[in-house]
């Protein structure tokens, strides 16, 4: 059984399914040597067989899975006496490589052994049993592939050793992502630190070391930068803009806006509409460059 999935909504480029299915293999059934242009994960439901990469041959059985990487030459074959039954999903996307790395996969480590609860296997079978139709078809399948990725990450028992400098960079990136997703809410530096799981003072020191500003000032600047983008929409009042970037009090917003830009919001907006200034760089640019 094979299901082919052509996404109708190309907003799902971060992670998307190409095809999925299952097969009861006959003794000695094989595929390859061949290459794929996408990721292909096989999960063994029953039986056994072999999987070959350029580096080595793996003998696999029930509850294990093997991952084929794009452009890698691979070969797999069902056992002659106890041929495997497997299901598979082919997928790709901008987030695929990172999510697979979080799951413990790599080109030199393409094998997974499921946990005792068979969490990955249950997700795979749930996926292949789906036959969604209608306008929400791509959403249902996208949800399933993310559920599978979550199961793979949870199943990863390997503790990755992250260099101290990389870990500090990771914490700073988490702060930036948290602010980008939550700037419109009433968040504080303590909220950010609690979400990341670090002491507020320590996290602030790490952030300042890499970004040359503290978290509070970064949050203020980010909110004002977002407010500037909304200024061009004349249907929005200054109060609307203030609330949209996390300020319930328009007076407080105006005070902070003037402190950062040098002008009150209403005056700045008049100047912007009559003579649009160059776009201010996003504060996140400091991290990305």
UniProtKB/TrEMBL annotation:
InterPro entries assigned to the protein according to its UniProt record, in alphabetical order:
AraC-bd, Homeodomain-like_sf, HTH-like, HTH_AraC, HTH_AraC-typ_CS, Tscrpt_reg_AraC-type_HTH
Pfam families on file = AraC_binding (PF02311), HTH_18 (PF12833)
Looking at the record, which segments are called Disordered? 267-289
List UniProt keywords, sorted A-Z: DNA-binding, Transcription, Transcription regulation
Recorded GO terms, molecular function?
Answer: DNA-binding transcription factor activity; sequence-specific DNA binding
Domain HTH araC/xylS-type: where?
173-271
SUPFAM superfamilies in the record, alphabetically? Homeodomain-like, Regulatory protein AraC
Task: Check the record and name the PANTHER family matching this protein.
Answer: ARAC-FAMILY TRANSCRIPTIONAL REGULATOR (PTHR43280), MMSAB OPERON REGULATORY PROTEIN (PTHR43280:SF30)
Q: What is this protein called?
A: AraC family transcriptional regulator
Record organism: Insulibacter thermoxylanivorax
């Amino acid at each position: 059984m094979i299901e082919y999935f052509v996404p109708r909504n190309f907003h799902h480029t971060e992670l998307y399914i190409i095809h999925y299915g299952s097969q009861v293999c006959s003794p000695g059934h094989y595929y390859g040597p061949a290459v794929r242009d996408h990721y292909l994960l096989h999960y063994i439901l029953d039986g056994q067989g072999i999987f070959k990469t350029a580096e080595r041959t793996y003998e696999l059985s029930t509850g294990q899975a093997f991952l084929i990487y794009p452009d890698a030459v691979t070969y797999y074959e069902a056992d002659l006496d106890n041929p495997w039954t497997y299901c598979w999903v082919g997928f790709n996307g901008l987030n695929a490589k990172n999510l697979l790395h979080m799951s413990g996969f790599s080109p030199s480590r393409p094998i997974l052994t499921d946990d005792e609860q068979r969490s990955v296997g249950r997700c795979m079978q749930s996926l292949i049993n789906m036959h969604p139709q209608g306008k929400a078809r791509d959403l249902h399948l996208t949800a399933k592939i993310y559920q599978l990725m979550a199961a793979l990450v949870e199943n990863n028992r390997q503790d990755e050793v992250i260099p101290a400098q990389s870990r500090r960079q990771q914490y700073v990136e988490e702060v930036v992502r948290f602010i980008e997703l939550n700037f419109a809410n009433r968040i504080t530096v303590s909220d950010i630190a609690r979400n990341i799981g670090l002491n507020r003072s320590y996290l602030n020191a790490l952030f300042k070391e890499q970004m040359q500003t503290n978290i509070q000032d970064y949050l203020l600047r980010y909110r004002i930068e977002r407010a500037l983008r909304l200024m061009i929409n004349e249907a929005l009042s200054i109060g609307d803009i203030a609330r949209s970037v996390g300020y319930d009090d328009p007076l407080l917003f105006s005070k902070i806006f003037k402190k950062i830009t040098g002008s009150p919001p209403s005056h700045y907006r008049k100047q912007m509409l009559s003579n649009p200034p160059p776009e201010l760089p996003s504060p996140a640019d400091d991290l990305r460059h």
